[in-house]
Amino acid sequence: MKRYAALTGTGAFVPERVLTNFDLEEMVDTSDEWIRRRTGIVERHIADDDIASSDLGIEAARAAIKMSGIDPLEIELIIASTITPDMFFPSTACVIQSRIEAMNAGAFDLAAACAGFSYALHVADGLIRSGAHRTILVVATETLSKIVDWTDRTTCVLFGDAAGAAILQTSEEPRGILSSYVAADGVAGDASVLGLPAGGSRFPATQETIQNRMHFIKMRGQEVFKIGVRVMAEAALIALEKAGLQPSDIDLFIPHQANTRIIEAVGDRLTIAHERIYINVDKYGNTSSATTIVALDAAIRAGQVGEGDKILLVSFGGGFTWAGTVIQL
Ligand code: UT7
Predict the structure, then answer these.
(1) In testing the pocket of ligand 1, which one of 222, 266, 292 has its CB within 8 Å of the most ligand atoms?
(2) Catalytic sites, residue numbers
(3) CB neighbours of 163 closer than 8 A, spacing ≥ 6?
(4) Those residues with Cβ within 8 angstroms of residue 40's Cβ, 6 or more apart along the chain or in another chain
(5) What's the pLDDT tens digit per position in 186-226?
(6) Of 138, 114, 140, 115, nearest in space to 126 by CA
(7) pLDDT value at position 191?
(8) Local confidence band at 170 (pLDDT 50, 70, 90 cut-offs)
(9) Angle at the Cα of 94 from the Cα atoms of 99 and 297, rounded to 5 degrees
(10) Which residues are 9's β-sheet partners?
(11) What is the DSSP letter of 288?
(12) How far apart are the CA of 155 and the centre of ligand 1, in A?
């Protein structure tokens, strides 16, 4: 029997508190004009101090479960994509499992930075196609505000907090994930280009790592920018080819939301019309692996895409990792 991983529910959640570019002008030497012109970002949402990634992920998961109409006990596996887990262990996926009472599910975290949602879809698709599982919850949840250096203007203006979730279920109809592609380059993407150097086994927390501000995101933006444009366009074309489709077959293109200049450059390379490219980086900033699923959920709930429509997701981030997914609703 041929099986497909159908997308039967999506959900998203962002914390209420908004931090505008004007708020940032009060915190570091920056300007609303610089941030808008260089990134397209206008505002981002920031979690309160007592909120962790699982708290956002649970809300997104509940919304996805509700849309799909399943009982949480039907979920067989939970994959949580995050670079801001609540703690090293237990995994954020296990925390979510307990809070949504999905007690029949296995649970693990997946670390592929901004490409994590598409990576998780890749894993879920393989497990559903193979017959290993029938119902999988994928959650992408990030509280980047917790690992951003609020004194570093080159990074702190870029990121925000959000979560998205998707329910994938076995279908005999050819719908859901039509193709997926994942890639990585650990040579070009070492931690000095984009990463969070300390807090793991290489540099456990010491007074020195704290003094040297090594527990915060470091990024050499221009290098990341150039590679991002190239590999996101590549991932899009490979995912399309695997699905036997052309860019013109796509109803909605949802690229990783890091920077409108990157999004437009990728769109131009793919010759996808601007009106078919989803952009919400202005409202949320870069929320790492949550960006594409937050956008997809919003597009579905707004009726911008519906049954039968084909959507292309591509993302890129630390590692480097990048990935593309073609979904038919
Ligand atoms: O999700 C993971 C993937 N991440 C990305 O995709 C991010 C990729 N990179 C980018 O989006 C862009 O490189 C940035 C938005 C991070 C930076 O834009 P840029 O056009 O590459 O600027 P730049 O780094 O070349 O900096 C230009 C100038 C510099 O000043 P000088 O050296 O020309 O005097 C910076 O010091 O802008 C300065 N600058 C700022 N000025 C005001 C850097 N950050 C700021 C700031 N406000 N926040």
Answers:
(1) 222
(2) 114, 256, 286
(3) 12, 13, 14, 53, 56, 57, 59, 60, 139, 140, 141, 142, 290, 294
(4) 259, 260, 261, 263, 279, 281, 282
(5) 999 888 899 999 999 999 999 999 999 999 999 999 999 99
(6) 138
(7) 87
(8) very high
(9) 70
(10) 167
(11) G
(12) 8
DSSP 8-state secondary structure symbol assigned to residue 114: G
- Whole-model pTM: value is 0.97
To the nearest 10°, report the CA torsion of 294, 124, 139, 213. Answer: -100
Kindly tell me the burial class for residue 32, based on how many C-beta atoms sit within 10 Å of its own C-beta (0-12, 13-18, 19 or more).
middle
Mean pLDDT value across residues 220-237: 96
3-class state of residue 152 by DSSP: coil
Q: Comparing C-alpha atoms, which of 150, 143, 139 is closest to residue 117?
A: 139
Domains and CATH numbers, the chain: 4-174 (3.40.47.10), 179-328 (3.40.47.10)
Tell the residue nearest (CA) to atom 12 of ligand 1: 221
Identify the pLDDT of residue 99: 98
